[in-house]
Amino acid sequence: MIFVFILLSFTTLKAQQNNSISLKEALKIAKENNISILKSQLEVQLSEENIKENKELRLPDVEIGGVYSRITNLTEFKDGFLKGREVVHSIPEIYDIKTNFKVPIYAGNKINNAIEMAKQQSKMAQIQKEKVANDVQLEVIATYLEIYRLMELQGILEENIKEEHNRLKEVQSLQKHRTVTKNEVLRAELQLSDRELSALNNAKNIQISLHNFKTLLQLPEEQEITIDITASIDENGIDPYDFYMHHALQNEEMRIASQEVAIRKTELNLVKGNYFPRINFFGNYALKYPNYMFFPPDPYLYSLGQVGIEASFDLSGLYKNKTKVNMANTKLQWQKMQTKSVQDQVKDELYKNHTQYQEVVEKFKVVDKALELADENYRIVKLKYLNQLVLITEMVDADNALLQAKYTKIATRIDAAMKHYQLLHTAGLLNEEFKL
Predict the structure, then answer these.
(1) Residue 162 burial (CB < 10 Å; 0-12/13-18/19+)?
(2) 84: left (phi over 0), alpha (psi -120 to 50) or beta
(3) What is the pLDDT along the chain (436 residues), one digit of tens a residue?
(4) Which residue pairs, CB below 8 angstroms and at least 24 apart, start in 215-219?
């Protein structure tokens, strides 16, 4: 019986351990399951099919068709309306099987431009897929670190609740000996109640964040998970601003903007193709019965075919296409300005992230020192309180200051980690950080 209990305990512990997800594992799961990433992959596939579809414009158009019909005799009225009726007997059955083809020879380079545009759109879809993956990575990291922060806070609160329980017992003991007033007991109870409410609220926030996390990773709703908080938050170094700027100018947003400009240029060339004639190689072949090339028709099956070159030119394009060209030119100029705007936004975002990361790293020493001071202050005030040298209000203030200092330290580390990942994301280096 004891063996079974130990085995069940071990199995339960192992299952719990398996449900603890590290940050790298979460990113890997998101890469495989996240809906936004899967949708972007489908968009890449569609863009590749679009290239194939435009390349097929070079292939000949081939048609085959057939007709079977019955006709009446030919009746002529030679003496006026319905007068002088004369009937010529015809062959009542008609068979007609024909085929024709057309191969484009020249179309103002429109086919080549259509293929080029499809390739550019496919390349942009690929870059967009990378951007979506990086955006999802940052969202996973942000959610993960938020849960990490809440769980660390929960640990601090639970530790503080134990301390408050002990303090309440001490105050109650002192009150029995009539060395403190009932008011101090009530103040200690109120402090404990406040901590318990904070812990309850924080626990619910953890549940909500974990539910959102499962949705982000597309894990089953009934699956119980937690995050691994045993691993410490890395304190990453920071490279010079120019290093990040060099990479940021080649990040996904900038490459997408550049592709948009290239697409607009190709679109302009495509519209200009309307100024040129269309030339096709064509041919057809038919089997027919009877021979209506003569009349009365000959009752014979005959064949007839032809091949040649046809050319057409849309004269209305000389005056209608000018507006289309102007519109395409305007779209190109707008896109160039938009690319410049995106570049400015990337620079501003990078500068902000780099500056904020430096700022939060510089806070490390300050918050560490603040924790040391708060801890020492708490120790002194607690000693004084036990010796009845200070009131419960000072004890509560010291306790709150220590709690805040503990939370500020871990929150600053987590904030620094988030700023670091935001900086890498803006610079387009986030994927290299984890090398998934």
Answers:
(1) exposed
(2) left
(3) 333 334 344 444 444 444 789 999 999 999 999 999 999 999 999 999 999 999 999 999 999 999 999 888 888 888 777 777 888 788 888 889 999 999 999 988 999 999 999 999 999 999 999 999 999 999 999 999 999 999 999 999 999 999 889 888 888 887 787 777 788 888 889 999 999 999 999 999 999 999 999 999 999 988 899 888 876 676 677 889 999 999 999 999 999 999 999 999 999 999 999 999 999 999 999 998 888 787 777 888 889 899 999 999 988 888 889 999 999 999 999 999 999 999 999 999 999 999 999 999 999 999 999 999 999 999 999 888 888 788 888 988 999 999 999 999 999 999 999 999 999 999 999 887 776 5
(4) 216/30, 216/34, 216/136, 216/139, 216/140, 216/143, 217/26, 217/29, 217/30, 217/33, 217/34, 217/140, 218/29, 218/33, 218/34, 218/35, 219/29, 219/33
Unique residue bearing structure tokens 């430096």: 358
